[in-house]
Design a protein that fits this description.
260 residues, alpha/beta, Nitrilase/N-carbamoyl-D-aminoacid amidohydrolase, eight-stranded mixed β-sheet, 8 helices, 16 strands, binds ligand LYUYDEPV
């Protein structure tokens, strides 16, 4: 399966959901024709304005779901909707929504690993559900930023022939080298495509690194963004994954009996 991708590497206005919705709409107007799948970054509505999430978070994600579903339908694209701050009676979660090109919600995933360096554990609650879904006939998974530092969690998503891993992030500039290295390792060790969208710009506490990136299953870079706002375009063809997994049969050679 070939997929034409567009990673919307935007700057996120701190705590201003309406400004950010306008920005996303503006980016969609600039989108190339014949794109299959669009990816947005982490917490793209609010940014890391965590202390105000009770006010600016999205009740049950209703607003974001409607907004994303309409965009997916209007532009006839599958949409990895980054993540947003979803409020519920349990607390606020960092939640990704995935829509198909008919505007149907395919998946809701909430960040499993909270990042203490950016105070997530003070304002957010984690979740324990998997990130797996099927998009455009392709077994896929979606994870959020810090989640990629946990190869055992990523592996769980890749078991069962998952071929594409989508990652959405607000990853700070000083650790862009970690971002690229970790994503490359996840691609190589899982023999999968990794499609990762990071924001750019700054908030009061961090400068963000961009470098949204697409890796192939050999760890080869297929597309990479700069550190500026842009749409990063890439294309993947998943037809080689099975052959690579036969050549070096990592999934068959696993010894889960040892990994305790
Ligand atoms: N938003 C995040 O989860 C950031 C993770 C991060 O910066 C890291 O180094 O890990």
């Amino acid at each position: 399966m070939t997929l034409k991708l567009a990673l919307m590497q935007i700057d996120v206005a701190f705590g201003e959901p309406e400004t950010n919705e306008k920005k996303v709409k503006e980016f969609f107007r600039k989108l190339d024709k014949n794109i299959d799948t669009v990816v947005l970054p982490e917490l793209w509505t609010t940014g890391y304005d965590l202390s105000r999430l009770e006010d600016i978070g999205d009740e049950e994600g209703q607003k974001a779901k409607q907004f994303l579903s309409e965009l997916a339908t209007e532009y006839n694209v599958h949409l990895i909707g980054g993540s947003i701050a979803k409020k519920s009676s349990a607390g606020v979660r960092n939640t990704m929504y995935v829509f198909n090109n008919e505007g149907a919600l395919l998946k809701e995933y909430s960040k499993a690993h909270l990042f203490k360096l950016m105070n997530e554990e003070k304002y957010l609650i984690d979740d324990d559900k998997d990130g797996k879904f099927e998009l455009a006939g392709e077994k896929s998974a979606g994870l959020i930023c810090y989640d990629i530092r946990f190869p055992e969690w990523v592996r769980t998503q890749m078991l069962g022939d998952t071929t594409v891993l989508y990652v959405v992030a607000e990853w700070p500039a000083p650790r862009v080298d970690h971002w690229k290295t970790l994503l490359k390792a996840r691609a190589i060790e899982n023999q999968c495509y990794v499609v990762a969208c990071n924001r750019v710009g700054a908030d009061p506490n961090n400068e963000f690194g961009g470098h949204s990136i697409v890796y192939g299953p050999w760890g080869n870079v297929l597309a990479e963004g700069s550190d500026q706002e842009e749409i990063v375009y890439g294309e993947i063809d998943t037809s080689n994954v099975e052959e690579i997994r036969q050549q070096i049969p990592i999934f068959q050679d696993r010894r889960p009996d040892l990994y305790k």
